[in-house]
């Protein structure tokens, strides 16, 4: 037999050997019930060449072509089966008030966070990650809906209740077969919906022996430290309460590192030997920034000696003393003994020194930094517990692990603690992701992203449709290593909660790669412009300077465009602005 015919026969026998499998696939695809068009299918290239070379009879051609076409489908189907991954799991860890500078994968000046670093090392670190409204409840509403506050209607922590009937990404994940769970802080006033399982802390929650609200709307109390307990619940759900045959999305949302930064007793002695330099603008005079001058979040003036800094002694008065005593009252005998043993000598030494002025300011700053870092330490340890569990159970390669905070936080910049302002330290938030198998991207992602992007990212990752009314954009192209040319060039921000705690005035603004334009409104009409390259600390308001008029015009046009795009009813009027 000529060599070409022999090859053809071998190929034909090979096709016959897989006939049974092909017939099964044919039945499945119902090909036998439809007219079979050869022209619409791709034959194996070597078979095409053999047929052409040997000039086979037409009946043999069509016989081979038909079988080969089905074989090609079989091959494609089998290949798809072998290469298709199971749906990816999502573990979304969010903390409260965690500034990126207190993560060693972002900043090595202060403390080591080895477990957070594990996430960044096995994935990506976003260097320009921001929130849309720097306040716990509103930020969480933006995250879970993928929409700005003007659309999800949760504007502030004082007057709003989240409408739980609205569209959220956990509900949409459920529709495509995901199990969803939430443990820890919810902070949206209404009870959670869209979760197969949830257990949340009421309000802010307590650091020691906290209460939890269950799915039955019962309140239970657990013994221990809150960061450990939330992690216990998360691991227990993964181990005992989910269907291992279904993909899952687990939200682990911690109370920490929220004010008043109460460390676990095992970490109380940490960092006491460290002294930290004051930020360069700690004694900011707020020149050209009247809204910044009007705030009540100063470490020097507003940080409470008892509630925040734990300097409790008999007859010492403070505005928040009773709240701190309530926190202490939750401790058991052993916890309270360890707490008092640690703080007693610090309290005695502080009152003996009788510090004033800049010495007192520096003492408060050092105490604040240490307490904050001790609370971070527990978070890092518990992130390690989650990563270790996923690794032990063989889930890491099939799970996206996300770590972020609901917003940033001031660590003495401008003399402040807290957040709220559109200034960089509170608007910017950490975002790191450990990527599942199949995603090769590593290192830094420098495109501007926002917390409204999390929802569409999770939906696309799960294969769910992204609703058209979502404001955010999926980060999946960035995770795949792409650099979309049409990626956003600006971000919108809007803070509403005023008058309220810390007295930060209402404001909205636009941020681009280089500039930030802010408008304070309501009981004030004040604009601020910052060049983020030349003035990253935002100390020099450039608004009103003639040379920046073209920049201001361009930014105001962009601001109005974003307000119209997101249908924010509170927006500036170019006509009124000229008055």
UniProtKB/TrEMBL annotation:
UniProt keyword list: Hydrolase
Keyword Hydrolase annotated: yes
Protein name per Swiss-Prot or TrEMBL: DUF4976 domain-containing protein
InterPro entries: Alkaline_phosphatase_core_sf, SGSH_C, Sulfatase_CS
GO MF annotation list: hydrolase activity
Keyword Iron: no
Family indicated by similarity: Belongs to the sulfatase family.
UniProt domain N-sulphoglucosamine sulphohydrolase C-terminal: residue ranges: 412-565
């Amino acid at each position: 037999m000529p060599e070409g015919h022999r090859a053809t026969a071998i190929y034909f026998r090979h096709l016959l050997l897989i006939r049974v499998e092909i017939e099964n696939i044919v039945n499945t695809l119902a090909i036998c019930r439809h007219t079979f068009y050869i022209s619409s299918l791709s034959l194996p290239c070597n078979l095409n060449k053999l047929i052409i070379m040997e000039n086979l009879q037409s009946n043999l051609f069509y016989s081979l072509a038909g079988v080969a076409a089905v074989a090609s489908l079989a091959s494609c189907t089998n290949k798809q089966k072998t290469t298709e991954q199971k749906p990816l799991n999502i573990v979304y860890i969010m903390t409260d008030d965690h500034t990126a500078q207190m993560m060693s994968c972002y900043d090595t000046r202060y403390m080591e966070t080895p477990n957070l670093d594990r996430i960044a090392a096995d994935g990506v670190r976003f260097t320009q990650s921001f929130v849309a409204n720097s306040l716990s409840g509103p930020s969480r509403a933006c995250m879970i809906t993928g929409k700005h506050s003007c659309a999800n209607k949760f504007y502030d922590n004082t007057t709003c209740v989240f409408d739980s009937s609205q569209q959220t990404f956990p509900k949409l994940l459920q529709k495509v077969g995901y199990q969803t769970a939430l443990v820890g802080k919810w902070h949206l006033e209404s009870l959670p919906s869209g979760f197969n399982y949830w257990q949340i802390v009421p309000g802010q929650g307590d650091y020691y022996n906290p209460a939890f609200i269950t799915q039955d709307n019962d309140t239970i109390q657990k013994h221990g430290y809150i960061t450990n307990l939330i992690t216990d619940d998360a691991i227990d759900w993964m181990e005992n309460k989910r269907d291992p045959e279904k993909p899952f999305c687990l939200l682990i949302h911690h109370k920490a590192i929220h004010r008043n930064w109460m460390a676990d007793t095992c970490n109380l002695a940490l960092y006491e030997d460290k002294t930290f330099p004051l930020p360069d603008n700690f004694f900011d005079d707020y020149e050209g920034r009247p809204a910044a001058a009007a705030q009540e979040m100063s470490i020097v003036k507003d940080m409470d000696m008892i509630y925040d800094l734990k300097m409790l002694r008999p007859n010492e008065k403070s505005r928040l003393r009773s709240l701190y005593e309530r926190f202490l009252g939750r401790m058991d005998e052993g916890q309270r003994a360890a707490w008092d043993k640690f703080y007693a000598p610090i309290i005695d030494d502080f009152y003996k020194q009788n510090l004033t002025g800049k010495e007192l300011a520096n003492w408060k700053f050092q105490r604040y930094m240490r307490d904050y870092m001790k609370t971070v330490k527990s978070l890092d340890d518990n992130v390690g517990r989650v990563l270790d569990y996923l690794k032990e159970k063989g889930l890491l390669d099939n799970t996206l692990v996300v770590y972020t905070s609901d917003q940033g936080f001031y660590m003495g910049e401008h003399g402040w603690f807290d957040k709220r302002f559109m200034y960089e330290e509170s608007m910017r938030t950490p975002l790191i992701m450990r990527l599942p198998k199949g995603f090769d991207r590593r290192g830094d992602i420098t495109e501007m992203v926002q917390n409204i992007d999390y929802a569409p990212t999770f939906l696309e990752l799960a294969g769910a449709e992204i609703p058209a009314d979502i404001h955010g954009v999926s980060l999946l192209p960035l995770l795949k290593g792409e650099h979309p040319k049409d990626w956003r060039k600006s971000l919108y921000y809007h803070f509403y909660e005023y008058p309220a705690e810390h007295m930060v005035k209402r404001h909205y603004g636009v941020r681009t790669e280089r500039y930030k334009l802010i408008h304070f409104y309501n009981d004030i009409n004040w604009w601020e412009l910052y060049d983020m390259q030349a003035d990253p600390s935002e100390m020099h308001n450039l608004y009103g300077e003639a040379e920046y008029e073209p920049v201001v015009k361009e930014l105001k046009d962009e601001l109005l465009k974003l307000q119209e795009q997101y249908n924010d009813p509170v927006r500036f009027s170019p006509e009124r602005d000229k008055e």
